[in-house]
Amino acid sequence: MSTERSLGEEKDGRSATPVVLVVDDDEDLADTCEYWLRDDYDVRVAYGGEAALDQVDETVDVVLLDRRMPNVSGDDVLEALRDRGLDCHVAMMTAVEPDTDIVDMPFDDYLVKPVTKTDVREAVDELVVRSDFDEEVREFFALESTESALETRDVDDLRDPEVLSELREQVEAVRRGQADEIEKRQRQLDRLHHINDLLREVDRALVDATTREEIEETVCESLASFDAYTAAWVARYSDAVNAVTCRTSAGVAPPRLNGTAEAVTPVVRTALQERQVQLVDEVSAEHFAAVFESDETVPSGLDRETLSAVIVPVAYRDTAYGALVVYTDRAESLGEDDRTVFEELGATIGHGINAAESKRLLYSDTAVELEFSHEDRDDLFVDLSATLGCRVTLQGFSPAADGGISCYLSTADADAEAVLEYFTTHESVENARTITDGPEESMFEVRITGTGSTVLGPLIEFGASVNTLTATNGEGSLAVTVSPDADLRVLSDTVRSAFPAVEVVAKREVEQSVQSTETFKRELEDKLTSRQHDVLETAFVSGYFDWPRGSTAEEVAESLGISAPTFHEHLRSGERKLMEAFFEETAESATTEKRRVTNN
């Protein structure tokens, strides 16, 4: 969703995020509208007219108002809002069919139930944008909304058809008086609806796609299907040879790129390196010569004289998957609004690819295992092993919602106090504690802020599964598992951009246990909530299940940011589900084995 009031701005003392009040005595519908809008707005809900008048104030931007409510009707609420002088937009949302009595009602839009998610979101989006219009222009769009509502009825069914004729004349009179401004604002609203349609279309495409290839294909096809865009393709850039290749395209035959052509490669490289959308207002002949076979042949549907392009980095955190190149022959020039929309689009696609590849790894029978040598001292654990001349072994880790990582590691050949002192003086370590201090090996919990101080950061963001990470005297090794169709070049580039001294030394295809991934693990993860999963994993790697315990319940709860009673509640629930999944699975295995023996 894109509105004129950007986050971080405030207007007339109102919140930076627009406030919407949903008023309906149908609690299910009111709650549904709240669910539809809450990602983009600060939503309040009132289950009736009296509650609405108690909650509404000068901070409310938009009111979705049902007309037919007991005690205090929607018409009464609307009148009270205007009597109080509240400058909020009101959309009547009702099953009452409009009639000419609504002409004198001071609302801004009229929605007839049943309403859809698109109806509600588009109405609210538009009303928020209208708040910046001049008063006369706001009046015009309110009158036009009333006219549109009445035109849904047969004229003969209206109480007073003459009123509709008078309203039409009034609308035209206002239009003539503010023609230029109204035309400008209408283009703005049309653009708003186009943007939201585009983002929703891509969101729908991402829901159905299960692989990176499907995501890229559906996104290109979705963009090419819009009238405003003539073609789209996904570019893959190689830093090693400074060249661009095409992964997929729609609306145009796959580009036949001429290697390091200067017209296209630099702009794709800039988009990926700076993580910023690049706008090209006029696509040059050199661009076509670079992208397609020659300057003589322009692909069908593309008019070079009127064409502009948008180059969008597709990335998830530090991982760059490529660039989306979109052509448009829109009359107006590309601007900052386009940049904002496509930035959101690139982030959405990147997140979708990351999720698809992580899911693919989880459910695939086969996987690719990569082994790295790791001697980059910018990594916290490699530097620790070099500084203290010890061996460091990662035992487990848990990414946090704020971007940090809780790590559990063991050290050998190093004094525990010296290790703890190293961590407490390191700028990227938020806190650290000793779990066990043994004569041969010690265990530590380390909370790292951000992801830039360890190679775990880019690996987590890519969606790779980290199998082992060890370092001895500054020389480390790392093994990770990724899905069989993962882009290994992107993974390598992502890791090496942050840690140049990391090198791939081996690649092998491995089989994953059918039982663990396809049955037991999937079944268990379906049973566990995300919080129960985090509690069980953190308790395990922190030594809570050891005897004597390496961590107390209070210490584990503190590392998770929850209370000890809440920790115990999640732990017990998770343990019960773990046992259920285990015994159900082993019972099935025993039955299968019994059948096999019997058959033999």
From TrEMBL:
Response regulatory domain sequence ranges: 19-128
InterPro entries: BAT_GAF/HTH-assoc, CheY-like_superfamily, GAF, GAF-like_dom_sf, HalX_domain, HTH_bacterioopsin, Sig_transdc_resp-reg_receiver, WH-like_DNA-bd_sf
Pfam family, one: GAF_2
Keywords: Kinase, Phosphoprotein, Transcription, Transcription regulation, Transferase
Modified residues (4-aspartylphosphate): 66
SMART domains in alphabetical order: GAF, REC
Gene3D superfamilies reported for this sequence: 3.30.450.40, 3.40.50.2300, Winged helix-like DNA-binding domain superfamily/Winged helix DNA-binding domain (1.10.10.10)
N-terminal signal peptide: none
Domain of life: Archaea
Protein name: Helix-turn-helix domain-containing protein
Source organism: Halogeometricum salsisoli
Lineage, uppermost ranks: Archaea, Methanobacteriati, Methanobacteriota, Stenosarchaea group, Halobacteria
